[in-house]
Write a structure and sequence with these properties.
The longest helix is centred in the first third of the chain and has 16 residues. This protein folds into two domains: 206 residues, Alpha-Beta Complex (2-enoyl-CoA Hydratase, Chain A, domain 1); 48 residues. The protein is built from eleven helices and ten strands. The radius of gyration is 19 Å and the shape is globular. It is an alpha/beta fold and 267 residues long. Helix 4 packs across helix 5, helix 5 runs antiparallel to helix 6 and helix 9 packs antiparallel against helix 10. It is 43% helix and 17% strand.
Length: 267
């Protein structure tokens, strides 16, 4: 699997590109994805990331079974290595955990077909999921006597009601886009031909807001939602204070007073 990236205005479109293999994941592909996402986070010209799959059949179907054979060394030994060193011996699952990259720019999964196993675990790490009408979703690991390795069950329980999440996780069944919308797994379902257009339109609305504020909202959502009220309120107030004197916040108030669109710089 290769990974491509190109900019449309202030949005980076990152594409998992191996349609012949339904964009299945390989260790090399995951390392390339991680490098691309980190560059997007550090690129001030990028304000939103859209993640999608090449072709119209799949977003991502999880691990490429032909290229992810078990490592030659034991799990305990490799688990104590760094992620890249473990991947060099074939242990790829920790590469799919993107939390260590600290990507605070909003990520939108534009799901254009099968979104299964590790592919769904990847989509669940995005902030929004927009689906083509032809998309389908599932965690089929139990069908092959395994489990989602990268928090898929837990992330699904946070994304949708527990009864629906556990039904998916325990049966390994797939659901279509309409059902995914009804349970809240995706925010929008659109015709396949308008998927990227829709994702870019949502990205543009996000990008029009203060860049630091948008990233801080995501940081609060990721880092503090599990805290007790007194703790998350304190963290929210700290985040507000960090932005209080920023040039963008002053610009936002000035633009409001002058009845014009704000011109945010990310400062």
């Amino acid at each position: 699997m290769t990974v491509t990236c190109h900019m449309v205005d202030t949005t980076a479109i990152v594409t998992l590109d191996d349609p012949a293999a339904l964009n299945a994941l390989t260790p090399e592909g995951l390392m390339a994805l991680r490098a691309v996402l980190r560059r997007c986070q550090d690129d001030e010209a990028c304000r939103v990331i859209v993640l999608t799959g090449a072709g119209d059949r799949a977003f991502c179907t999880g691990a490429n079974l032909k290229k992810t054979f078990p490592p030659t060394r034991g799990f305990a030994r490799n688990a104590l290595l760094g992620r890249v060193a473990e991947a060099a011996d074939g242990g790829y699952t920790r590469l799919l955990d993107l939390s260590d990259l600290q990507i605070w720019k909003p990520m939108i999964a534009a799901v254009n077909g099968y979104c299964l196993g590790g592919g769904l675990e990847l989509a669940l790490q995005c902030d929004l999921r927009i689906a083509a009408a032809t998309a389908s979703f599932g965690l089929p690991e139990v069908k092959v006597a395994s489990v989602p390795a990268v928090g898929g069950v837990q992330a699904l329980l946070r994304a949708i009601p527990a009864a629906h999440a556990m039904k998916l996780a325990l049966t390994g069944d797939r659901i279509g886009a309409a059902e995914a919308l009804s349970v809240g797994l995706v925010s929008d379902v659109v015709p396949a031909g308008t998927l990227i257009e829709t994702a870019l339109a949502v990205a543009a609305r996000i990008a029009a807001n203060g860049p630091l504020a948008v990233q801080m909202v995501k940081k609060l959502a990721v880092e503090t939602a599990h805290l007790a009220p007194a703790e998350y309120m304190a963290q929210s107030n700290l985040a507000w204070g960090l932005l209080r004197d920023s040039a963008d916040r002053i610009e936002g108030r000035t633009a409001f007073g002058e009845k014009r669109a704000p011109r945010y710089s990310g400062d």
